[in-house]
Design a protein that fits this description.
- The chain is built from three helices and 32 strands.
- The protein has a 16-stranded antiparallel sheet with strand order 1-2-3-4-5-6-7-12-13-16-17-26-27-30-31-32, with no helix packed on it.
- A hairpin with a 3-residue loop joins strand 2 and strand 3.
Length: 555
């Protein structure tokens, strides 16, 4: 049995003085915000195990346990403005007119029961069965518990008598198969997705007097329950010549009852709500190959791993698709793929504009050379929603890694590469920079913008104001960034002191080393964009290059 308790407290204060740094920009009176956050997590576990070997060939392992977890979060916030001077920093010094206070409390609890049984016969036939039951406070009574079984089996062929003739080069060979069920309860920023919520701030007139009342702000359903994923797969593990090992896995995952937000028309009166709708599949392969060899005094190792995944939405309930601001979830296509117009370069002349289809997002009379040209996919001489297509996805189709290592006498070195392919990102105006406002910070990409003297297709014309050209206004593949990459994630070179030196210093071992991270990146995306950064407006600290030298001493 074991347990743990974690608590985190944060006291946050923001005092912002009255600032007006130009005539057109006033940042408001002196204001003060005081916030206090606290969250704590309590965990408890209890387990029983049993291990026994019978007649030297039958091994049984049993495990049963219980897990309990409770998470609590509290927040208190107070705000005032109009302080008599910038020297007054006490909350009470601000005006009570316009002051606000808010509070937030939420809890999340989960109880779990689990059991596992393993059986091994003569190290040839291996079986394992698991069962887990999870009860979550996210769901209403009667829907809180989900039960998730799994089974797996393996056959070690290399230990069979009929494989005796191959043992000179086949060291180990095992085939595997598995089936299992997993559950998911995660819903972003909502710990009570089954409870209708009300606001006490609305005002109602009664008897010529404004009174405070209450109004429902969300519509939720109380039969919400666990999202379920069924996974089955087969695999092969093999080692040959005592130096080359490989694994190969094929998997098929089907997710049902996906916890998705249902979009509703504005006439509904409430925002979208969560429901168990939709089905999705993920199919793919994972493979790895590793080589270890001692050549004279050099110990060498190399390894590669590769993964391919195909994602497809199977159902969205009664809907064919769900559209977001820049993405679409459509039956038969990948989950949340980018959705927008296909571009065809940049208008180079007024003659091209005069021959162009009618643009519905902008009056053609406002088009000028240097604007992005869009493709009329359905050939109806109109650029509208019907011309949008599914673009690439930010979920990579391929991921891979390469590791190399060597050791010679007292020296050692290792390298690790990581990469992805079949992946793209979509960044908004803030990443590329705007030409007006306090937040404008145009990137160097605009140096190669279209001008009459530089008729390029790399960047559209620059504009003081936000036009349909910009990625946040019109989603198109012009702004879809290819983020395929290969990155040298880690390098290490070390030297271990001879044991005689360590003995004289009365210590066990000493190693000095150099370590480098993110030293090299091969990519196609523009300068300033990290290929591992998520899509969005660019508020992401890129993977930095680091170099360090250290010493490791074992006493």
């Amino acid at each position: 049995m074991n347990g743990s308790y974690y608590v985190q407290n944060q006291d946050y204060n923001l005092y912002r003085k009255e600032i007006q740094y130009n005539e057109a920009k006033y940042d408001g009176p002196t204001q003060y915000t005081q916030s206090y956050y606290t969250n704590n997590r309590t965990k408890a576990d209890a387990m029983l195990t049993y291990d026994k070997t019978f007649i030297e060939k039958h091994t049984v392992n049993l495990l049963a346990g219980f897990h309990s977890e409770l998470y609590k979060y509290k927040e208190t916030k107070a705000y005032r403005k109009d302080f008599p001077s910038s020297d007054v920093t006490d909350l009470n010094g601000g005006s009570v007119v316009g002051m606000t206070n808010s509070g937030y409390t939420r809890e999340l609890a989960m109880n779990s029961f689990f059991a596992r049984a393993k059986y091994n016969f003569d190290n040839k036939y291996l079986f394992e069965g698991n069962i887990r039951g999870d009860g979550s406070s996210r769901f209403a009574k009667g829907y809180r518990w989900g039960w998730f079984p799994s089974f797996s089996g393996a056959w070690r062929l290399s230990n069979e008598d009929f494989m005796a003739g191959t043992r000179t080069f086949v060291d180990d060979m095992k085939v595997r198969a598995s089936w299992g069920v997993l559950g998911n309860q995660e819903i972003p920023n909502d710990y009570y997705p089954y409870i209708n919520t009300y606001s006490t701030s609305p005002k109602y007139p009664f008897g010529n007097v404004i009174n405070t009342g209450a109004a429902q702000t969300n519509n939720k359903i109380n039969d919400l329950s666990w999202e379920t994923t069924y996974t089955w797969g087969v695999g092969l593990d093999m080692t040959v010549l005592n130096s080359l090992s490989m694994t190969l896995d094929w998997y098929n995952r089907k997710t049902t009852g996906i916890l998705m937000q249902v979009n509703v028309p504005t006439t509904f009166g409430y925002g979208g709500y969560y429901d168990n709708i939709g089905e999705m599949s993920n199919k793919g392969i994972e493979a790895s190959l590793n080589y270890n060899k001692q050549i004279s005094q050099v110990a060498f190792n190399a390894g590669v791993n590769f993964a391919y995944n195909k994602n497809k939405v199977l159902s969205l309930g009664d809907l064919d698709d769900q559209k977001g601001s820049r993405t679409i979830t459509m039956v038969g296509r990948p989950y949340q793929a980018f959705y927008g117009y296909q571009s065809d370069g940049i208008f180079q002349s007024q003659e091209e504009i005069d021959k162009a289809p009618k643009y519905t997002m902008i009056d053609n009379a406002r088009l000028i050379p240097g604007d992005i040209k869009l493709v009329d996919r359905n050939k109806d001489n109109v650029i509208d929603e019907k011309d949008k297509i599914i673009l690439n996805s930010e979920n990579p189709k391929f991921t891979f890694g390469i590791n190399l290592g060597a050791k010679w006498k007292l020296f050692d070195a290792s390298l690790f590469f990581q990469g992805a392919a079949g992946v793209a990102r979509y960044f908004t105006d803030e990443m590329y920079g705007e030409f007006n406002g306090d937040s404008g910070h145009p990137s160097k990409l605009w140096l190669d913008r279209w001008t009459p003297e530089n008729p390029t297709n790399k960047m559209p014309r620059a504009s003081k104001f936000r036009t349909y050209n910009m990625p946040e206004v019109t989603t198109s593949d012009f702004w879809l960034v290819n983020t395929n990459y290969l990155r040298l994630k880690d390098v290490q070179v070390g030297f271990t002191f001879p044991k005689t030196w360590c003995t004289n210093m009365k210590i066990t071992s000493v190693r000095i080393y150099y370590s480098g991270q993110n030293l090299l990146t091969i990519k196609k995306c523009p300068e300033g964009i990290d290929p591992e950064a998520p899509s969005g407006w660019g508020a992401y600290y890129p993977h930095i290059t680091t170099n360090s030298v250290g010493i490791s001493i074992t006493l």
